[in-house]
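ok so dumb question maybe but i'm new to this and my supervisor (M.) told me to 'just get the structure for Acetyltransferase (GNAT) family protein' and walked off. so i did the thing. is this what she meant?? sequence i used:
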Amino acid sequence: MIINRDKLVFRKATSKDIPELIKFKILLLDELNEYTNKDNLEKLKIELEKFFTEYLETENFVSWVVEYEGELIATSGLILWRVPPRYDCVHGKYGYISNMYTVPKARRNGISTELIKKLIEDAKKMNLDILNLHATKDGIKMYRRFGFKDPKDPEIELNLGNY
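this is what came out, is it supposed to look like this??
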């Protein structure tokens, strides 16, 4: 699909967008094959609604959406995460970028690039020191163009749901 960029509307998400934010998050997870337990779908929807209701429109979370001809076609999110300050993170403020999703028919039109630019500007206004994200194979080249690098120290995680 060729997009007329003049018709793209970039705006901050509001509470009215919560159903679409939930839908797009699930589409993203499905595309990444992270949704393996169908029993958790309803619980996931409930928890996503709680999250967006609690954080959307606060100083700790920002979400941009993109509309094209009245249809939502892309989403993004940035959440503030505090840690004790360190030399390379003197404010102790990280930002985690998530929910980067563009519907397949609208991809390859620079929409994600514009969303990342907006999130980086928001991160600067929030006085964040470092931005983190988990990149897909399709998105990693774009993030590297903005200066994202592999972390100096390896990142590991413990899934407490399996502990």
